[in-house]
Amino acid sequence: MKLAVIYDSKTGNTQQAGEWIVEGMNGIPGVQAKAFSIDDVDQDFVKEAKGIVAGSPSYAAAMTPALHAWLLENGGQLGFAGKLGGAYATEQFTHGGGESVIQNILTIEMVNGMLCYSSGGACGAPYIHLGPIGVNNNVEKHNGMDYYKDYFTIFGKRFADKALELFND
Known about the structure:
With 169 residues, this protein is an alpha/beta fold. The chain contains five helices and six strands; from the N terminus they run E-H-E-H-E-H-E-H-E-E-H.
């Protein structure tokens, strides 16, 4: 089963988080996952994918305008309706708007007819209620994306498990 991660990344942190999600997804037998920048999406792969996770850095407590436009312009032609959707975010500092980013992405996915997944509290610790968020060390030197790797890979595994449960024939 194909799964896709689509992201906009300004400093490389959101790209790294997306690659960690793919790492988790690909750890599940029967899953082929790939990550794509919005500037280089394999449209055929995404059309075949049963699930899509979108990611963005927090940009004024919202997803980037580029990801917002991309999701609106491409959701229909790439067949988002009926696919499993998920979201993740990165931010410059703790409480930097990551939750808002994820909620905005999930809303657009639902408007496109996607089934949205977060894992919430159903899978136990670590609890990932809406989607994983990573904080880089650009502003807070005590922070760094590596501290959040497990959240992203675990989310990828959980997302892939749910996609297989829903769509594996």
